[in-house]
Each structure stands twice: as structure tokens, then as C-alpha cells.
Design goal:
single chain; 3 helices; alpha+beta
């Protein structure tokens, strides 16, 4: 999109009404200054056709070079965007795999702790062993519940952020 503006500033300085002057005084004449400001800008990958035509006048074939460079830059940008999207897709898959693996290992460790606590309760004859086994089982179960609740809360903002990105 080309945007052109032209502005003319006219500055005029005139002298006050002339008085009768003596022969020793010189006549002052009115001075008029004119300034022309020309501003041209464009947005987008290519300059407007008028500017391309001027480039061609300066150096034949230069407009074609500008167009080729613009096409190359566009191809490069699209290629880089495709690479970024591919990397983000792989990262999302790895993130899901890592989360699942963490859930599996967490479940195995918590299950083993609950089983060990249950075995300690059943096998011990004293109340101290039963209390220790019960504490181990309850702590493991509490850890699972807390991990489940906080895991769900931390996933909610991720889903909101992904929805906003799209």
C-alpha cells in the first residue's frame, strides 16, 4: 500500500509599511521563502510500480532483481515458519510422552508405597509397626490425590493459552 503526501510551506516575511527613507538608508525588499516537503512511504514486500519504474530507469534489470529478492525472502519466511511448526509439533508429542511416563512411574512408586504400608500393617505385631505402615499408606495415597488435583489445575491454563494462540 503506497502512501504519498505533499505539503507546501510558504514562509513570507514582509517589511512593515515603508516610511520615507533618507538617501543614506537602503530600500529593504520583501523576502519570500518557499519550502516544499515531499514524503513517500510504502508498506509491503514490494515498492509501488512508480518506484520500480524509477529503479529500472537508473539501472536496467534492477526492478526484476528487487522482485526476485522479494520472492526469495517470502519463500525463506514460509520455509522457516514450516520448520517452526514442525518443531512445535514434535515438542508437543514429546511433552505428552514425558507426562505419561511421569504418570506411570508416579503410579508405580505410589502403588509400591501403599503395598509396603499394607504389608507392614499386616506383618507387624506391635502398634508401632501398624502405625508406621498406615502412615506410609496414607501419605502415599495423599500424595497421589494431591498430584492428581494440582496436575489438573496446571493443565487448565495450558489449554487456555493454546486456545488463545489459535
Amino acid at each position: 500500500m503506497a502512501k504519498r503526501t505533499r505539503r507546501k510551506n510558504r514562509l513570507a516575511r514582509t517589511n512593515p509599511p515603508k516610511k520615507e527613507m533618507s538617501s543614506s538608508q537602503s530600500k529593504e525588499e520583501g523576502v519570500q521563502l518557499e519550502a516544499v516537503i515531499h514524503k513517500s512511504e510504502f508498506r509491503g514486500p514490494l515498492p509501488p510500480p512508480e518506484i520500480l519504474a524509477e529503479y529500472e530507469k537508473i539501472h536496467p534489470g534492477f526492478a526484476d532483481r528487487v522482485i526476485q529478492l522479494t520472492e526469495k525472502q517470502g519463500d525463506h519466511r514460509r520455509e522457516m515458519q514450516a520448520k517452526v511448526l514442525a518443531i512445535q509439533g514434535r515438542d508437543a508429542i514429546l511433552d505428552r510422552t514425558e507426562r505419561k511416563r511421569g504418570q506411570y512411574f508416579g503410579f508405580i512408586v505410589a502403588s509400591l508405597a501403599i503395598i509396603c504400608g499394607t504389608v507392614a500393617i499386616v506383618r507387624s505385631s506391635g502398634t508401632a509397626g501398624q502405625l508406621a505402615g498406615g502412615a506410609l499408606s496414607v501419605a502415599s495415597l495423599t500424595g497421589l490425590v494431591i498430584a492428581f488435583i494440582t496436575g489438573r489445575r496446571s493443565e487448565e491454563p495450558r489449554q487456555d493459552q493454546q486456545a488463545h494462540k489459535e
